[in-house]
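writing this on my phone so excuse typos. first protein, seq and then structure
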Amino acid sequence: MKKLLALIAVAGFAFAAQNCAMCHNGGMAKKLDTLTPAEIIAKMKEYKAGKGNPMMVNVAKAMSDSEIKAEAEKYGKK
């Protein structure tokens, strides 16, 4: 049962990492288009280092640096 719950949690974080707009453009968190891609990348590096919101720490740790860059460019201020 513990393995199943862990698998579900990992899958959930992976899904959230690829669907930033789910929270950030849905009213639950700060809109990402108010930040530049560089600001998003810097903040994600902080999260990846374990600093800040525990939910975002887990999301950032589940993402590669190239995934973070791609998402920052996709959602950041144009």
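second protein below, same order as before
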Amino acid sequence: MKIFKYIIWAVLLIYFQILIAPKLSVLAIVPNFFLPFIIFLGIYSEFRFSVHIAFFFGLALDLLYPQLLGFNAIIFVIIIFLTTKYHNSLNKDKFIIVLLSMLLINLSYYFLLWFLNTLYNTNTVGFFGIVMFGILYNTIISVLFLYLISFTDKVKFYFDV
């Protein structure tokens, strides 16, 4: 039943990322809601299921930004692998640990994105400052969204028919 719920959340998140996330952009930085959901899946579901969803999310995001086709799919699978392997050693109840973990994941994701963009594009003046702002902005959004997902996962809905 949990897998079915996560699949429904995944489909809704794709629509949310495509339709609503661009309206939340600041300085042309669109928040990436896939990262916190993938981390959530890595923590609360089994690896065989979450790696498929992560790969699917990566392909969906790659179709939105086709200049780096395959980048997000590979990075999301690596994030799922690292999250499922090392999440037990972290204290997820401490806010500062969650904040630093999300900062580290956003740093690695956006620095790889910045590096690949500098390889493909010759005009990257001022791009590093935008990436730094994007890291901070997406870290804040990711932490809030991760806590929102964790809270809604604990809420139980009952239908009395």
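Helices lie at 2-19, 34-44, 47-64, 71-86, 95-120, 127-154. thats all i got for now
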